[in-house]
Amino acid sequence: MMGPAHSLSGAAAWLGVGAAAAAADHAMPWPVLVVGALICAGAALAPDLDHKSATISRAFGPVSKALCGIVDKLSFAVYKATKKPGDARRTGGHRTLTHTWLWAVMIGGGASALAVLGGRWAVLALLFIHMVLAVEGLLWRAARVSSDVLVWLLGATSAWILAGVLDKPGNGADWLFDAPGQEYLWLGLPIVLGALVHDIGDALTVSGCPILWPIPLGRKRWYPIGPPKAIRFRAGSWVEMKVLMPLFMLLGGVGGAAALNVI
């Protein structure tokens, strides 16, 4: 799928988690719901770090462009080192390492550790990165015609304000993990979810997605998981733009309303 659809699906997924948490009598404070949805929307772009033309490659100028090149080469090297006889020949690393459940867990776990061990500035850095990505994904039309500096300023301002809101007692810094020193440990959850939702979205397209790596399936270790080929679609097609994106917006609205006990 394309960046905007990935971001919408990520936001909708976290709002759905919020609805489930409310139904289980462990409702999220509203700042956690909002911040988590934005982080998840941004994190849903991150697996495309292996693609130089993806939305995320433009998000931070030359820095993200260079990082995408590095991740592409790393992913390709891992693919070559671990592929089985049935795996296809490739010339690049797109839709390999960063499109797996293991990568999602590693990135989310690393973010949680950074948030706990790195203190406020680490939390601000995580929020800034994902707020910029959320702007790039959710407001893609405006982001593409505006200055990168304006997008970065919006991301920085949003991160600073949201961190201040979360820091207030009862607003969710210690949501789910309330032991001393575990504030913001939950920040890794929307990051894991965003990456997994991205992978599921890509699995619906014609190429599939090797979500289960490194678990081998038959003669393949990079088996492209997906539904029957007859019901898959091409990235950027009318199915994605006219059906899935409106559906994600509807599901997100319903999930958010349920999470806030509006319905």
User: How large a portion of the residues is in β-strands, by DSSP E?
Assistant: under 5%
Distance between the termini: 31 Å
Largest sheet: none
Radius of gyration: 18 Å
Describe the structure.
This protein is mostly helical and 263 residues long. It is 62% helix and 0% strand. It contains 9 helices and no strands. It has helices spanning 3-23, 30-43, 55-59, 62-82, 101-138, 140-145, 148-167, 188-203, 238-259. Helix 1 (3-23) packs across helix 8, helix 2 crosses helix 5 and helix 2 packs across helix 8 (188-203). The protein is globular and about 55 Å long.
List key phrases describing it.
mainly alpha; globular
Question: What topology does this entry show?
Answer:
Blueprint: H1 3-23, H2 30-43, H3 55-59, H4 62-82, H5 101-138, H6 140-145, H7 148-167, H8 188-203, H9 238-259
Helix pairs in contact: 1-2, 1-5, 1-8, 1-9, 2-5, 2-8, 5-7, 5-8
In short:
With 263 residues, the protein is mainly alpha-helical. It has helices at 3-23, 30-43, 55-59, 62-82, 101-138, 140-145, 148-167, 188-203, 238-259. Helix 2 packs across helix 5, helix 2 (30-43) packs across helix 8 and helix 5 (101-138) packs across helix 8.
